[in-house]
Amino acid sequence: MTAYFLSDLHLGAPYFSDSREAEKRVVDFLDSIRHDADAIFLLGDILDYWYEYRYVVPRGFVRFFGKLAELADSGVRIVWYIGNHDIWIYDYLPTEIGIEVIDGYSVEELDGHKFLMTHGDGIGRLKPSFKLLRKLFRNRICQKMFSAIHPRWTVPFAYNWSRHSRKIEGPSDADAERMMENIITFTRDYKEKHPDVDYYLFGHLHLFVDREVVPGARMVVLGEWIARYSYARWDGSELSLHIWNGR
């Protein structure tokens, strides 16, 4: 089978000079693989912010969602791993589009090879402040309280928060080193307990990395679609890394 892996699109982010163009770039890429892909794995932070309300749909992403729906309707399997920016996906996108949503990690078998995939924000030693935020964002009571606030306040607040974070430059050197060590340690430990898993794919770091951590354990960090437009492709026997430069 042919599968594609990408992460950290951050669609809708306020630091894009042209959000429509950023969305169109992703849609063009998805359109280019529509006759080739059997599965597409989205490893988190696909949207810079998303909150599902019971009766209304937040504005934006129409072309992106439409292309995902078209691909799903044609038989392409689409799996979306929740990141730290698109945590609040509930039942609308799975029901409306037909995607699978995973919060955490999963192991998939493709052509006899096992792939572990996750966004990667919850792995290893976390900063206390980030750990607290993860706990608050996933708390059902906090979610219900947040949903009761009118979107005219919550949406600008979320995008303003995002605007002041260093998404394009990526994490600081210290944070990048710590997060990389987290996923390396996770990969090494998981491989020791599960020797049949060959590939470990992560997002979150905004780095584009391909490394054999230990023999038989290949770790890939998928980069981002803010400035790099990177992805990985499985062709049935080999995993390769690419940069999207348009049609």
Describe the structure.
- There is one protein chain.
- This protein is an alpha/beta fold.
- It has a single domain, classed as Purple Acid Phosphatase, chain A, domain 2 (4-Layer Sandwich).
- It has seven helices and eleven strands.
- Strands 4-3-2-1-10-11 form a six-stranded mixed sheet, with helices on one face. Strands 5-6-7-9-8 form a five-stranded mixed sheet.
- The two termini are 22 Å apart.
- The mean pLDDT is 88.
Major sheet: size, sense and barrel closure? 6 strands, mixed
Provide the helix percentage. Answer: 25-40%
Number of strands: 11
In total, how many domains does the architecture comprise? 1
- The dominant shape is globular
CATH class: Alpha Beta
As laid out across the biggest beta sheet, the strand order is 4-3-2-1-10-11
Distance between the termini: 22 Å
CATH homologous superfamily descriptor = Metallo-dependent phosphatases
**Low-confidence regions:** none
CATH architecture: 4-Layer Sandwich
CATH topology group: Purple Acid Phosphatase, chain A, domain 2
Average per-residue pLDDT, rounded, comes to 88
Tally of alpha and pi helices? 7
How are helices and strands ordered from N to C?
A: EHEHEHEEEHHHHEEEEE
Task: Please report which band the strand proportion falls in: under 5%, 5-15%, 15-25%, 25-35%, 35-45% or over 45%.
Answer: 15-25%
